[in-house]
Every structure is written in C-alpha cells, then in structure tokens.
C-alpha cells in the first residue's frame, strides 16, 4: 500500500506538471489566469516558493492583457505580492507602487503602500554605500504614514523609518569621523558641526560633540605658534559645549584632560607673551 501511495503521488505530480507546461505554452489567457491564481493561493497557503515561481511565469504573460478589465486589480495585486513573497524586492517595490496609482480605491491599497515602502527598506544597503534606496524607502514610509495615520502597519512603519534614519545618521557621522582619522581637522570640525545641526536627536550626537572638540584640540596643538592661542580658545568653547550636555558622558574624562591641557597651554602662552 505504501508503494502504491508513492506511485499515485508521482503520477499526480507528473500530471500537474504536464498540465502546467501545457497552459504555459498555449495562448488561452483565461486558463493562464485561473492556474496562476490557483498556484498563487496554494503557494501562499502552503508557503511553497516553487508554486509562487510557477504562478509568476504565468502572470508575466497575462498581466498586461488584463489591465482595465475586472480581473486586472486582482492580478496586479497578486503579481506584486508574488514578487514580495519571493523576496524580489526591487520588483515588488515597483509593482506595488504601480498598483497604488492604478487602483487608489482598492481595499488592498493601504497594504500596497506599506509593502512598496517595505520593499525599498529591504534593499536599502549598508550605511557605507550609496543611500538612494534608503531615501526612497523613507519617502515611501512617510507617504504611508501621512495617508494612514491610524493604519494597520503604522507601528512598523514608524519603526522602520527610525532604522533608516539611524543608518543615514551613521553614514554622516562616519564621514565626519573619517576626516578626523585622516587628520583633516578643519574638515572634521565643519562636518561635525553640520552633523550636530542636522541630526539633533541622533544616537551619535554625543560622539559628534566630543570629536568636534578633539579635532579642534588636535588642530590647535599641531598649529604654527601664532595660531595656537586662538585655536585653543576655540577648543575651549567646544569643551564647554560638550560638558553642557554630557558632563557624565562616555568621553567626559578625556574631554576634561583636554581642558586641563588647553588651560595650561594658554597660561604658558600668556606668561611668555608678558615676559
């Protein structure tokens, strides 16, 4: 009986494959539609990527032919969502975007707005690379949040926007930090100033305040003698800025060491000037 079961299963599988190939090759768009819809439904229900891939091959052939027809909305949605479920996020982002424009009153429109944004979130690269897709994802999430402030996905949307903004913050901070590491202290100070101004709520804000101070301090002590006093006073101002907000911060002890050295150097300079 067990062997018979496997034989029957093999026969049914071959028969289904044969039917699929037949529908795929023929010109009957109704048959393609019905099989694509059936395979999609099974693929979602059973979490079977293979069935979704088969459905997608059929959908590729017929979606354009159903635009403007009653079945067009259903096909456009499952076409977009098939790409999404297969983690082909560039395609799903684009297709869901098209869906929202073509069917703005659909009951699936909110989901489509969200999944379009989520698709671009998924392809957002690590912080060190070009962030075009990150900006696009943020814009898409903001569009969703604006349209659906009480929407089903609002919590996730806000969380993902936070993740994306953190990535942009890290990129901007690391660019400034790179100037510091390469001892281009003037550029570092300018970059950290811009970062502090543009990212007041960033997780990197304390570090930015400290490394602005550190850059100014190192610039001062490595300058020509005539430039040292003025640059030390600038570093002192940056120290006061840091301590105003982060007197118990991660870098507070090193900041205090800088301050002590700054005051000693200024005192020495004043003494020499008065001699």
From TrEMBL:
<keyword id="KW-0472">Membrane</keyword>
<dbReference type="InterPro" id="IPR039565">
    <property type="entry name" value="BamD-like"/>
</dbReference>
<keyword id="KW-0998">Cell outer membrane</keyword>
<dbReference type="InterPro" id="IPR017689">
    <property type="entry name" value="BamD"/>
</dbReference>
<keyword id="KW-0732">Signal</keyword>
<dbReference type="Pfam" id="PF13525">
    <property type="entry name" value="YfiO"/>
</dbReference>
<protein>
    <submittedName>
        <fullName>Outer membrane protein assembly factor BamD</fullName>
    </submittedName>
</protein>
<feature type="domain" description="Outer membrane lipoprotein BamD-like">
    <location>
        <begin position="36"/>
        <end position="225"/>
    </location>
</feature>
<dbReference type="InterPro" id="IPR011990">
    <property type="entry name" value="TPR-like_helical_dom_sf"/>
</dbReference>
